[in-house]
């Protein structure tokens, strides 16, 4: 794994994420069925296909521009909660990265912190509310603490798993109260896929 995320690396990251979403779309929808609208996997799958097409057309030159384009595309093409939340995360992260031609894991963590803050402001969720924030926040904190992207991906996976035992306090899942315990939040699961895709590639992250 190279020590910095370039534009090509950012595109590869999103390609791997799109592939993972394709592979797990049915699983993500199954997770969403008992606690949401049964559309998380399908919506995110459609959105990531649109992202890849948009990146091919625009060919952004920096990692920040890649993430900014991806986020804007998700916001404009995906309904439900996943488009605005994932779109805001990527768009605000990309904007924070600016025009740098490459970013290391620490800089990516700083950018993702801006994205995380924007997501929490948009949805109002905090860690413990059984949302994607439960996977996103520990991953960002791991990078900020000097961890590798592999460690960030592991933190995201643990955070996603933690939602199994939480009572949701945001979104449609919150209507279920304690009946939602035992159901993993689909947004947290897809966030874990996002960081797993980062760790699996040639992007940022020498520890």
Protein model, in words:
- This protein has 207 residues and is mainly alpha-helical.
- The protein has a single domain (5-199), classed as Alpha Horseshoe (Serine Threonine Protein Phosphatase 5, Tetratricopeptide repeat), CATH 1.25.40.340.
- Helix content is 65%, strand content 2%.
- It is built from eight helices and two strands, in the order βααααβαααα.
- The chain has helices at residues 7-32, 40-58, 63-77, 82-97, 105-123, 133-144, 149-162, 186-199; strands at 5-6, 102-103.
- The protein starts with a strand and ends in an 8-residue tail after the last helix.
In percent, how helical is the residue content?
Answer: 55-70%
Low-confidence stretches: 172-181, 202-207
Structurally, the number of domains stands at 1
Which CATH first-tier class would you pick?
Answer: Mainly Alpha
Proportion in β-strands:
under 5%
Q: Which structural class best describes the helix and strand composition?
A: mainly alpha
How many distinct helices? 8
Largest sheet: 2 strands, antiparallel
Mean pLDDT score, rounded? 85
Q: Could you name the CATH homologous superfamily?
A: DhaL domain
Major beta sheet, strand line-up: 1-2
Taking Cα atoms only, what radius of gyration do you get, to the nearest Å?
15 Å
Principal-axes shape call: globular
CATH architecture: Alpha Horseshoe
State the total count of DSSP E strands.
2
- CATH fold-level topology: Serine Threonine Protein Phosphatase 5, Tetratricopeptide repeat
